[in-house]
UniProtKB/TrEMBL annotation:
The gene is thrS. One of its GO terms (biological process) is threonyl-tRNA aminoacylation. Residues 1-63 form the TGS domain. InterPro entries: aa-tRNA-synt_IIb (IPR002314), aa-tRNA-synth_II (IPR006195), aa-tRNA-synth_II/BPL/LPL (IPR045864), Anticodon-bd (IPR004154), Anticodon-bd_dom_sf (IPR036621), Beta-grasp_dom_sf (IPR012675), TGS (IPR004095), TGS-like (IPR012676). PANTHER family: THREONINE--TRNA LIGASE 1, THREONINE-TRNA LIGASE. Keywords: Aminoacyl-tRNA synthetase, ATP-binding, Cytoplasm, Ligase, Metal-binding, Nucleotide-binding, Protein biosynthesis, RNA-binding, tRNA-binding, Zinc. Binds 1 zinc ion per subunit. Residues 269-541 form the Aminoacyl-transfer RNA synthetases class-II family profile domain. The lineage of its organism: Bacteria, Bacillati, Bacillota, Bacilli, Lactobacillales. Its cofactor is Zn(2+). It comes from the Bacteria. The keyword RNA-binding applies. It catalyses: tRNA(Thr) + L-threonine + ATP = L-threonyl-tRNA(Thr) + AMP + diphosphate + H(+). It comes from Lentilactobacillus otakiensis DSM 19908 = JCM 15040. Homodimer. This is Threonine--tRNA ligase.
Amino acid sequence: MSQLSFEFPDGSVKQFDDGITSEDIAKSIAVSLGKKAVAAKLDGKFVNNDEPLHKGGKIEIITSDSDDGLSVLRATAAQILKMAIANDFDNIHFGQSDADEDGFFVDTDKPDTQISVDQLESLSQSMHKIIKQDLPIKVVFLSADEAAKVAGDDPYQKELVKENEVDGKVKFFEIGDFKSIAEGAVLPSTGKVKIFKLLSVAGAYWQGKSSNPMLQRIYATAFNKQKELDADLEKRKEAHERDHRVIGNELDLFFVDPKVGAGLPYWMPNGATIRRTIERYIVDKEVANGYQHVYTPVLANLDLYKQSGHWDHYREDMFPPMDMGDGEELELRPMNCPSHIQIYNHHIRSYRELPLRIAELGMMHRYEKSGALSGLQRVREMTLNDGHTFVALDQIQEEFKNILNLMVDVYHDFDINDYTFRLSYRDPKNTEKYFDDDEMWTRAQTMLKGAMDEMGLDYVEAEGEAAFYGPKLDVQTKTALGNEETLSTIQLDFMLPERFDLHYIGEDGKQHRPVMIHRGLVSTMERFVAYLTEIYKGAFPTWLAPHQVKIIPVSQDKHLDYAKKINDQLRALKIRSSVDTRAEKMGYLIRDAQTHKIPYTLVVGDEEVNGNSVSVRKYGEQDTQSESVPDFIDEVSKDIASYSREE
């Protein structure tokens, strides 16, 4: 019998007979490993535990207590769900299914009516019956003709059969009489799945393309233990309560209208107030730090992006060019940097002007797929808090520190404290894929590292993660749900100054090439507002809150004039205040102000009118306290001025 060679994660290599299973390989290593093994990965692809192997390669044994083991459990649950759906519904078609760290899903389509959320409980019961029978799950390989017969008149399965055909065969999972195209690896029987939950239904385009039919996606999850499912459901509940799309609807911050287009948000007055406050803050902060703010067109000649390299490298993320009919093609800009280069190049620059700092709240457009769009986090039109500094080579380190100090200062004002730094270098073993200047790379990377060390900041070094045109610093932050994302970046760029032939006149009277530093303090306005909405859970600090003070008169007849008088005083100080004039009961109006997370609710009645005072209730507190009007104005003014930080 021929031998197969398998390489293990520790680098060791072993020979086994052709046709051996991954389960037998696991047992040969250790009996305990054989008991825990649920599947394997061969050259990165899942294979079933009992599936005969006919080729060698890099192999990894998957155990039940690993993340991949959880994916195998969920892939098994997905097959059981498919069988339950096929049993319960006639003329059902199946799209894709998948299992990952978040759970699993199954896409379906039904000509007459889609599966509704009300039917999930019934489907769960059907799944439990299949699980109780502990039916074997087998791997079978069918010929293309046999697979086509299994697919029948299901257009999606027909397409998947073609995509999954290898050497004239298609791999299926078989449970009793039910067959489904194999995706991932599964456990040996249905009885191995104990803990699962069908969560929700939502629309999903076939294969993620908006031009394709809309299918019905059933979301679900599965775990090895009930306590793990309970913790996950609690996390999902928290995620829903913090979801900026949910909060955005509750607080009337923004909306997206399919009549206008996906990924094109409308900012309502409340959301626009938050955004405007952030924009004014950022502009003032940057101007105070030596930046010159500009406005540049959202359209540019396509040749500009060809020269910058964006057309070659990011064409798939750019909208199609607009032919103006006279040979000129205009492009919606995907990046602001070429525009700021034009600002730099408009004059002859001297070394005395450097560092030259240019900033803009620049609107950009990205050709995002419909399936990837999500509220304000993934959009097609966005406004980036963008900045570019042009420096001499020996100014890099100092300017890098200036930018980083500005970032940290901004984070402090927004009460962002959970973040880490990641320095990204080029891969020293694969330098040919980077901008070709070894000396400049070495010097720049040394400067960035030196600046971080001088500032006493902890950071992670990541070789091979630099952009092809320069090293960078990424600021990684935790979202409200503990996920990591990049909030800010400082990026050195040697390539664009070369492409656009940028220069300045040095002290020696000769031309020198500047280095360009790209930086974004808080990403785009859209993504930053989404991030803050979820971090604050919609309870924005006073300085950011769209409504800072709500005044409620006890009696519209007797106390309205006094309420309006206080309101006028507050608004004269640019405090966002309003009087609630609705003919509702006092308790309802107070609860409504709390529901809308207004920082200060003031109630005024006879006592307040007579004493030139207000009854103050802060958001999230049950108690009220009486304050004189001047004292309250002083309190709220200090709250706003300190960015709502407790000093």
